[in-house]
């Protein structure tokens, strides 16, 4: 009984409960038909939200006002860069992935440079940067027929026993991220900065370096996400990352990470990612119109966050 | 001292650039044309400013403006009574959100993120395809041509003056800003934080409604996605205007100036600079960065 209670006290449990409820509601509607296929599809789509969600989580944990609004533009540009470098040939896959990673990391570094040099709030800095990245992408990707190499497209769609390989790899990655957050100096520093930036600085945390690393990491994850998306959907385009602005923030917060910073939660990102994808599947299965689907999605997000409750006031 | 003038300086910077590139634009007709969309942007920025004054953020204001636009172009014209009830009801929803956020201690970013889907969905349900028509009285208000002073500038002055008086000069305005500055102190002094939050959110709703109506009065017809860009524009406007995300430090006059700067920088300046369409968005970002960089230089010199 106590173990159940400790489990219920975990902030991330609610996102998994939500995902489970939505899944059960859908298979209840279809009479059990397609239950397994739905999990497979949800896992393969949730991967992309989870990867950027983890990056966004580290950024948000840095404290109030820290958020990366340039992710959609970053994903779009990186998808184009990756596909162009790969040039449709299997032998260039690794080089293309590295190029996307480098492109994303560079964008993250530039974001922090703007924040640091101009001392502007990260929201405005990443927003301005995203405008510029968007233009670069439009003029860079114009008129290109950008298709992934067949090997890369197969890899991103590869499944073993109904479980997408990409999802397994992402689970390994998120375990690594959780370890980095809780057990490594880098992660502890991020949490310390989020709790009290001045105290962290006085305690000898390299505040500037950690923030720089975090924005670069988030950018790099956006870059790799762009490459994978282009592989999965068999082509890069400018708008490929658009939905990941809201989604990346939503999974972080639904997953139990504090928007006030200093408190992060990796498992919750997975739960929330699955929840969002399954929610969309459910509403599509019910056959509701686009307008009703949006209204219900919004109301359910507000409902979940209300039910899960905010943080207890410290004082 | 100089810091308070920064929003005005940013606007002057953009105006000088425009005057230099195309002197003929600095005229009654030119301003009417260039500041075409400044009124709805200024109203949306003021709306955003109210929530920011209470240390919250509204990520749904853009889709809300779109929703109001769709209601304005359909029900407000065909069945004014229903239209008015719906718009008042949506302000009440905003007030309720404020109460919910306060009572459950929820992060406003997430709640309004969720609401942005709701407003967008409702907008699509009200107006599935772009169209509709603005009520005639609204069209005639928005095409008003006062002597000497272009209407957008006159409207901006009036908006700034009214909100400045309400928020900066009345005693309840001080309480509202105080709820962002030091909530604990206000509570101990016996003020209801629930009420301040409700009032701030209701004001955001009210100015969101005004923004949507003004927008439709200019564009004459609506589209469910018409306001989507306003979320980020309004946040940028508040910050350009010298506002800060925490601490209840906002400036209505600055916010209106910030909105005008954004409205001018967005398209007229770029057209005059002959920037190809591909790079217009980038130029927008670059202008934002340049203005903010100028701000940093000035405030550093001050110290």
Short description:
The complex is a heterodimer of chains A (315) and B (303). With 315 residues, chain A is an all-alpha fold.
How many alpha or pi helices of chain B? 16
Look up the CATH topology of chain A: ABC transporter involved in vitamin B12 uptake, BtuC
CATH class of chain B: Mainly Alpha
Q: What is the strand arrangement across the widest sheet of chain A? A: 1-2
Question: What best-fitting shape of chain B do the alpha-carbon axes yield?
Answer: globular
CATH architecture assignment of chain A? Orthogonal Bundle
**Rg over C-alpha atoms of chain A, rounded to the nearest angstrom:** 20 Å
Subcellular location (chain A): Cell membrane
InterPro entries (chain A): ABC_transp_permease
Pfam families (chain A): BPD_transp_2
GO molecular function, one term (chain A): transmembrane transporter activity
3D architecture notes:
The complex is a heterodimer of chains A (315) and B (303). Chain A has helices at 2-9, 13-30, 35-61, 71-86, 93-118, 122-141, 150-157, 165-183, 185-195, 197-202, 207-232, 244-254, 266-285, 290-308; strands spanning 159-160, 163-164. Chain A is mostly helical. The mean pLDDT of chain A is 84. The longest helix of chain B is centred in the last third of the chain and has 27 residues, at 193-219. Chain B is mostly helical. Chain B has helices at 2-21, 28-34, 38-53, 61-73, 75-78, 80-103, 108-126, 136-142, 151-169, 171-181, 183-188, 193-219, 230-240, 252-266, 268-272, 277-302. Chains A and B meet through α5, α6, α12 and α14 of A and α7, α13 and α16 of B.
């Amino acid at each position: 009984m106590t173990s159940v209670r400790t489990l219920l006290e975990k902030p991330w449990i609610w996102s998994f409960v939500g995902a489970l409820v939505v899944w059960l509601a859908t298979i209840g509607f279809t009479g059990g038909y397609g239950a397994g296929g739905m999990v497979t599809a949800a896992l393969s789509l949730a991967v992309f939200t989870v990867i950027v969600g983890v990056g966004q989580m580290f950024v948000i944990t840095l404290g109030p006002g820290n958020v990366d609004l340039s992710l959609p533009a970053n994903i779009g540009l990186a998808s184009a860069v990756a596909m162009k470098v790969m040039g449709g040939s299997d032998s260039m896959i690794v080089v293309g992935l590295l190029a996307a990673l480098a492109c994303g990391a560079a964008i993250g570094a530039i974001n922090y440079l703007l924040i640091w040099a101009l001392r502007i709030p990260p929201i405005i800095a990443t927003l301005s940067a995203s405008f510029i990245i968007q233009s670069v992408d439009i003029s860079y990707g114009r008129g290109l027929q950008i298709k992934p190499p067949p090997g890369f497209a197969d890899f991103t769609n590869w499944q073993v026993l109904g479980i997408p390989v990409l999802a397994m790899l992402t689970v390994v990655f998120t375990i690594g991220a959780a370890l980095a957050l809780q057990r490594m100096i880098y992660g502890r520093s991020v949490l310390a900065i989020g709790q009290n930036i001045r105290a962290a600085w006085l305690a000898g945390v390299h505040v500037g370096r950690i923030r720089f690393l975090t924005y670069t990491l988030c950018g790099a994850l956006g870059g790799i996400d762009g490459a994978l998306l282009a592989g999965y959907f068999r082509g890069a385009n400018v708008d490929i990352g658009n939905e990941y602005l809201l989604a990346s923030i939503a999974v972080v917060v639904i997953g139990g990470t504090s928007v006030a910073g200093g408190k992060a939660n990796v498992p919750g990102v997975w739960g929330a990612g699955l929840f969002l994808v399954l929610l969309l599947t459910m509403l599509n299965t019910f056959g509701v119109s686009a307008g009703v689907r949006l209204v219900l999605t919004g109301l359910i997000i507000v409902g979940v966050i209300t039910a899960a409750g905010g943080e207890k006031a410290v004082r | 001292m100089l810091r308070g003038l920064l929003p005005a300086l940013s606007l002057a910077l953009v105006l000088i650039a425009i005057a230099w590139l195309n002197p003929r634009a600095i005229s009654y007709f030119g301003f009417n044309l260039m500041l075409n969309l400044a009124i709805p942007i200024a109203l949306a920025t003021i709306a955003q400013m109210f929530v920011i004054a209470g240390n919250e953020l509204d990520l749904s204001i853009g889709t809300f403006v779109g929703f109001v636009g769709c209601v304005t172009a359909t029900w407000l014209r065909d069945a004014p009574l229903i239209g008015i009830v719906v718009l008042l009801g949506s302000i009440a929803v905003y007030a309720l959100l404020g109460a919910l956020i306060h009572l459950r201690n929820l992060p406003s970013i997430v709640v309004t993120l969720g609401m942005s889907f709701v407003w967008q969905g409702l907008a699509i349900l009200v107006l599935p395809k772009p169209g509709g028509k603005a009520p005639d009285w609204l069209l005639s208000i928005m095409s008003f041509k006062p002597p000497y002073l272009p209407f957008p500038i006159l409207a901006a002055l009036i908006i700034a003056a009214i909100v400045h008086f309400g928020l900066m000069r009345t005693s309840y305005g001080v309480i509202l800003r105080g709820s962002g500055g030091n909530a604990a102190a206000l509570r101990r002094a016996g003020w209801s934080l629930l009420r301040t939050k409700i009032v701030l959110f209701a004001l955001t709703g009210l100015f969101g409604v005004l923004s949507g109506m003004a927008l439709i009065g200019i564009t004459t017809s609506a589209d469910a996605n018409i306001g989507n860009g306003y979320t980020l524009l309004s946040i940028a406007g508040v910050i350009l205007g010298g506002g800060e995300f925490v601490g209840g430090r906002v400036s209505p006059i600055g916010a209106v100036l910030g909105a005008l700067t954004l409205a001018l920088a967005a398209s007229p300046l770029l057209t005059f600079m002959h920037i190809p369409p591909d790079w217009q968005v980038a130029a927008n970002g670059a202008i934002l960065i340049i203005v903010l960089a100028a701000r940093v230089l000035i405030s550093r010199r001050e110290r």
